[in-house]
Amino acid sequence: MAIQELKINTGRQGLYEITDEISGFITKNKISEGICVVFTPHTTAGITINENADPDVVRDILFGLEKAFPDRKEFIHSEGNSAAHLKASCVGSSVNIIITNGKLMLGTWQGIYFCEFDGPRSRKVTIKVIVDADL
Amino acid sequence: MAIQELKINTGRQGLYEITDEISGFITKNKISEGICVVFTPHTTAGITINENADPDVVRDILFGLEKAFPDRKEFIHSEGNSAAHLKASCVGSSVNIIITNGKLMLGTWQGIYFCEFDGPRSRKVTIKVIVDADL
Amino acid sequence: MAIQELKINTGRQGLYEITDEISGFITKNKISEGICVVFTPHTTAGITINENADPDVVRDILFGLEKAFPDRKEFIHSEGNSAAHLKASCVGSSVNIIITNGKLMLGTWQGIYFCEFDGPRSRKVTIKVIVDADL
What we know:
homotrimer, 135 residues, Jelly Rolls, elongated
């Protein structure tokens, strides 16, 4: 199955919804049953699934991550972005979504987000599907 | 391969072990080798793997998450459950478990848990297996 | 597809890079396209992907996790390692990496790490690949 790469130009910090791009990939490739892996190849960014109805949720998630993983004077990494690396490992580099009947099995309020923790940058996300061979 | 949905009625916050239900799905469907994806379609809940021997571990995990991601007066999401959304993105919406010789490859002390961060609610978990086609 | 198990002898806390071992497994088994799951069967350890260029990043990640999830006097689990269980659920028990053209699709700065939060111990990591059947 083909792999698709998305490109995202980001601001300093932010969550960028990519649900439509991933749904479009499933539809275009006529995938019926399988698993979709959404992966980002960066070390100061992540992928998460969370609410896409009220944008205040995204704002509060970024605020809460900043409080839990603030920049600290004890950090020694010379680029000064250790908090972004920490958020990346907490949120994770990828998510899995189940595909059935040709659609992503997301909940009513779920959206898929690219998480920028150390922008602005030009970023990539890779989408890969493993189709169910046992049907 | 069939998909199975579990239903869980939760309390306010809690970790609910679902290992037996997932093992039962593997056995019932006679799956020998593959990957099992356990996914929850909610944005204030998660799936994690942790110790299932001493219930105090689960209690301490919930306590520690509450300390790291408390409710904050600066949160603006009007439903007032931003801390639960934050915990969901930290813990994650899904886990993967390797299946071999017809069994989940879990460690001795590992159990699979549905994590409720904003109950009580009626919740769902979806189980999907990708069988290994290359055998 | 074969499963491979790695063994790692750890210190008290640390991130141990295992990228070369996983790349070697892909090469040895001549896997061209698929998904690689890297899973650890322990409840006080995790798997993460982060920077492998400057070792100070790893040091800062461990420091930041310790600050976000410290040992707490309110913890009741008698083994006294609840903070390690908490870090395990935050970082996660596994990662997925996409394989294409016979290689792990990792970013320039990404390495795969076993995370020890409660050593020293003798630990295991399991590598499993699902090859793409739809090619």
